Amino acid sequence: MDKLKLGVLISGRGSNLQSLIDACGETSFPAEIACVISNVAGAAGLDRAEDSGIPANVIDHREFSSRDDFEAAVNEALDAAGVELVCLAGFMRLLSDGFVTRRHDRLINIHPSLLPAFKGLRVHERVIGAGARFSGCTVHFVRPATDEGPIIVQAALAVHAADGPDALAARVLAEEHNIYPLAVRLIAEGRVKVVNEVVEISGCRPPTGVLVNPAEG
Ligand code: GRF
C-alpha cells in the first residue's frame, strides 16, 4: 500500500506532531511523515522528529527578506520530500494566498475551537470570557482567510465552571491528539471530498446523543 506523504509545519511544542508521529508508527496507518519543517530554531517539536528519525528542517522566516521568499523555501523543501498533504500543527506564521491556493485541499490545519467560532489567538481565554458552555477543536482544509475552510473533523467537550484557560486548553489538546490523526486517515483513505466548500466523508455516521451543559444533580 502506498502511504500518503505528509509534511508537518510547526513552530513550537509539537504535541500534535507527536500524535501524527505516533499514528504513522502503526503499520496499518495509511500515511507517513516525509518531513517536518519548523520556522523556529530550537522548537521542541524538532526533537520529537529527530527522536523518530524523521527528516526535519529549520526554515527561519527571519532569514528571508520577504514572505514569498520564505514560502518558496518551504515549498521547495516540501516538494523535495515528495509531500502530498501538508499539516499545519501549531505553525505560527500566516501563509500567503499563493501558498494556500497552490495546495488547495492538500493543506490542513488544527485549531483549538469549534470553528467557525473563536478564530484567532487566545482561544480558551475568549471561550471562557464568552461563557460558552462547549468548546472543542477542529481540523479543516486551509483557505486564504485565517482559520477558515471546509471542516473535516471536530471534537466537542463541555466547559467546566472551574476551568481556567490552561485547564480547558489541556482537555481540548487531548482531543486534538485524537482528531488530527483521524482526519489524516480519512483523507489518506480517499474518503474525504469537498463539495461546494463542505466536506463529505464516506463510510462514517454521526454519533448519537445530545450533550447538555450544565447537567443537573
Ligand atoms: C494547538 O492547540 C493547535 O490547535 C494550535 O496550536 C497548538 C499547537 O500545539 N494551532 P502543539 O505545538 O501541537 O503542541
The biggest beta sheet is recorded as:
7 strands, mixed
Average pLDDT number: 97
Low-confidence stretches: none
Give the % helix.
25-40%
Structural class comes to alpha/beta
Describe this structure in words.
By secondary structure, the protein is α/β, with parallel strands linked by helices. The chain has six helices and nine strands. The protein has helices at residues 15-24, 44-51, 67-80, 97-102, 123-129, 165-188; strands at residues 4-10, 31-38, 56-58, 85-88, 107-111, 134-141, 151-158, 192-195, 198-201. α1 runs parallel beside α6 (165-188) and α5 crosses α6 (165-188). The protein is globular and about 55 Å long. Bound molecules: 5-O-phosphono-beta-D-ribofuranosylamine (GRF).
Q: Any chance you could write out the topology, listing elements then pairs?
A:
Layout lengths: L3 E7 L4 H10 L6 E8 L5 H8 L4 E3 L8 H14 L4 E4 L8 H6 L4 E5 L11 H7 L4 E8 L9 E8 L6 H24 L3 E4 L2 E4 L16
Parallel strand pairs: 1-2, 1-4, 2-3, 4-5
Antiparallel strand pairs: 5-6, 6-7, 8-9
The structure holds 5-O-phosphono-beta-D-ribofuranosylamine.
Summarize the structure.
With 217 residues, the chain is of the alpha/beta class. The chain has helices spanning 15-24, 44-51, 67-80, 97-102, 123-129, 165-188, and strands at 4-10, 31-38, 56-58, 85-88, 107-111, 134-141, 151-158, 192-195, 198-201.
Quick tags:
6 helices; 217 residues; globular; alpha/beta; binds 5-O-phosphono-beta-D-ribofuranosylamine; seven-stranded mixed sheet; 24% strand; two-stranded antiparallel sheet
